[in-house]
Each structure stands twice: as C-alpha cells, then as structure tokens.
Amino acid sequence: MISPAWPIAGVLIALVACTFVPDGFVAVLAPRFSLNRYHVLSFFYGILFIPILRLILSRLWSVEDVQGHKDGSRSSVYGLDHGRLNLDLPPSMWMNMGYWHNESGDGRPMSFPAACEALLREVLRTAGFEENRQSSSGLQRHHRFRVVIDLGFGCADQTVSLMKNTMFQSPLVTGQMEKIQPFRSYIGITLDRKQFQYAEQRVRDLPNSSARLYANTQLFCADAASPNAWPKELRETVEAEATDSAETWVLALDTLYHFSPSRWPVIFYASQHLQASFMAFDLCIADHVAVHNRVLLRVLTKVMGAPWANFVTAEQYRTKLIEAGYKDVTVNDISEHVFEPLANFLDDRHRRLRFIGYGLGSFHAAKWMFRWWANSGVMRGIVVVAKQ
After folding, report:
1. 112-131+142-387 has CATH 3.90.1720.10 classification
2. What is the tens place of the pLDDT at every residue in 278-336?
3. Which of 54, 217, 239, 261 matches a 20 to 30 Å C-alpha distance to 367?
4. How far is the C-alpha of 353 from the C-alpha of 84, rounded, in Å?
C-alpha cells in the first residue's frame, strides 16, 4: 500500500523543482503563453513558497504520527484515544529552553516546568540572589524596595515564581547577606496579546492569600524592544517605579534574541535612563563558525523570527554592555545544561505522546535544531548579568 505521505512528498518535490526552475512552473500553468510576458507568476510563486512549504511539512509530520499507530487498532472501539481524556489542563505554561541540571543527583529526569523554573533560578543566582534553604526564624528581615521589569513574561509562570513568598539572600554593600523577598514590585511587558490576556486572567484568579502579589504586579501588552514606542502609561509606570526603588532590575528570560531590530535599544534605555541592572538568559554564536554553518544559522534564525543582528559572540556581547554603561559584567556559558538535555526531553516527549495519538508537531524542527547546536557548538546559551 502506498503511504499517504508519498503524494504530499511528490507535491513538495514539484514545488521545490519549480522554485529553482521557475520557467517550468510557468510552462505548467500557462503553456500557451509567452514566458517573458508571464514571468511575474514566478515572482509571486516565490513569495508563496515558504508558507506552502510550512503547511506541507506540518502535514508530513501529522501523517508520520498517524502511520506510527496503524497496527490493527481499528478493531478496538477506543484504542488509546481516551488517553487525551486523562490529560489535565496545564497546571503551568512555562516556555523557555530550561536549565536541565538536576542538583539532587537522584538520577530522575527533570520535568519541563521544573527545568524552566530552574533556568530562572540560575539567572537569579548568577545575579547574586541566593535561595535561602535555611529557616528564617529569628532573623531580622531587611525590606529593600526592589522592582523587576520583565521583558517577555510569557503566560505569567515566571511572574508568579518571582513574586511568591520565597526568601532569598542578597549581598549588601558591606558584603554581608540580608534576608529578603527578591522583588516587591513587578512590571511585565509582552508583545503577544493572547499570552497577555491569559497571564492577566491567571494573576487575577490567584487565591485570596496571594492578593498582595496581584497588587504589586502590573502587566502590559507592548513591544518591549522599543522603549520609545511604549504607551504613555507603561513608560510613566516604569520610570516612576525605577525612581522610587532602591534597586531596579531588568530581566529577559530567553527572549532577547527575538527583539527587533535588536536587543540593544532596551538595554541602553535600562542602563542610561533607569540606572537598572540587567540579567538574562540569551543566545550568542561561537567565536569561530564555519561559513556553511553560518549560512545555515542565518536561515534558521530567519525561520525563528530572530534578527541576525542579535547573534554576536560572547565577547562582542560583553563589549556592547560596557558601551551601554555597565561596569560589572558576567557572562556564563551553560550550553551543556540546555541544548542536548532539551533535545533529549523532546525525543522522550514525542515517544510518549505517540502512544495516545499525539506527536511533537512543529517542535520536530526545534528538536533537530537543538541537537545540532549541541553537537556542533555553533550556538551558545549564556547567562548574562550586568550591574551598574
């Protein structure tokens, strides 16, 4: 029996062939007409090629998932389809690459939400906020007013994590450690309206015991990359909080490489206008990348919706932060705890989802990309902290 994937693959091959031989495409659609007169058709086809290619690839992946389960289960009334009825609605909606480093050493694999929150904790730890694992009874709490401006907060998982009643230690000017809550005020900015609406409702629906969290949390839907284009309310809120706070921090957790035209306008604004310190998980390229790998990277970053201008080396990143006015800059490479473990997780998740008729869908491409980054070393995952 011919697989349903073959007709789709045939169409894909034909599309690719027509892309590289546009005259052939015109000849197929309009054999009686002059190629010179109708060459504009090839131009419009080139514009439509990428969306069509994405659609066909997504269909191929869905066909693969279905084919993997044609093992005679048609004779069953339900098979494993009822597995989807047992799935809980997401208790969390984390979305970053994660920090896949199991400190407990018990050998158990980390869950995706745990790895995502661990990445946030690693950024905080690098910035000088150490989680307090000891009892705080009998200790005097020093409440310093700190505000965090979160550039790209997703669905508010990191919002809740940052603002919940977790005690941290932070270095004082004297070098001693004070017991604090990490931040007393939170301003979040996201460009994705659907995620903004989800996050806003999620924070609003927190139990009454977390009323203080909502009171000190402000969420905005705007382009974090362009401070000059921020709505008046957002800009006034940010500048007022920064003026009134003892410390201002700007956080970007796995978001900055998407910023257009680049990450630097908001970083310069944070340093020079807000006098804010800066902490992030971000991507940079290796110091030496072969030409063919650089070409492939440029293609992938285009598909990711990430401007190529954002992909610099770690040293270039450090130099730019100093140019912005920062004096104390830390750049830690944590790639080994990010790309390969994430690719392994996606492999395992795909295998498990196929048992109940699902698959990774478009995350297949992401899995391949993370595996390539891990094996080639062309892309590096870094934790960056810059202080005034």
Report:
1. no
2. 999 999 999 999 999 999 999 999 999 999 999 999 999 999 999 999 999 999 999 99
3. 261
4. 10
